[in-house]
Specification:
The chain has 176 residues and is of the alpha+beta class. 28% of the residues lie in helices and 31% in strands. The chain contains four helices and seven strands, in the order ββααβββββαα.
Length: 176
């Protein structure tokens, strides 16, 4: 099956990614839900394993690769807070995603067995404007590349350099 690494807008204010990953459902689920494993590709932090549970992600993108980065983001580190809205291990996880009150979007992770690996579908909803969709799509694109590298036992590219490339693509290709 041929699968694009790029996300797509599937509805107004919604982007979706599909990635074929190595490993079992349980292994990929652990990388979504366990702070130490999630910290290798996205962000460590609290995730209470239940609907209504608290989510706090502590982002420091420079920690995601041992390789030096030619780009930097002065806004680092940052935190995202949310609440678990779906908890169905090891198949489906959803939580709200907000950096400021009243700005919550929602991200959903769906896992399905795919041959000897896992098909991971990430859908992020309630992304109001073009700039937000570009930022979120670029972020997920880069984080999912890092997850794939980690699951394949390789060091990922530095986050901000990879993000800049993804951002240029999404700024030009996502509908306004």
């Amino acid at each position: 099956m041929s699968m694009s690494r790029y996300g797509e807008v599937i509805a107004p204010e919604t982007v979706r990614f599909e990635r074929a990953l190595p490993g079992s459902l349980e292994q990929v689920w652990a990388y979504l839900t366990e702070s130490d494993k999630r910290g290798l590709w996205l962000a460590p932090g609290t995730m209470e394993p239940r609907v209504g549970g608290r989510v706090e992600l502590r982002f420091n993108h420079a920690d995601l690769s041992p390789l030096p980065d030619t780009e930097a983001n002065p806004g680092e580190p940052c935190r995202v807070h949310g609440e678990v809205t779906e908890w169905d291990p090891p198949r489906r996880l959803s939580y709200t995603w907000g950096e400021a009150p009243g700005e919550d979007s929602e991200v959903t992770f769906e896992l399905a067995a795919d041959g000897g690996g896992v098909l991971l579908t990430v859908t992020h909803r309630r992304l109001g404007d073009h700039e937000t969709r570009v930022s979120v799509a670029s972020g997920w694109h880069t984080h999912l590349d890092i997850l794939a590298e980690r699951l394949n036992g390789r060091d990922p590219r530095p986050f901000w350099s990879a993000h800049a490339e993804a951002e240029a693509h999404y700024a030009a290709s996502l509908p306004r």
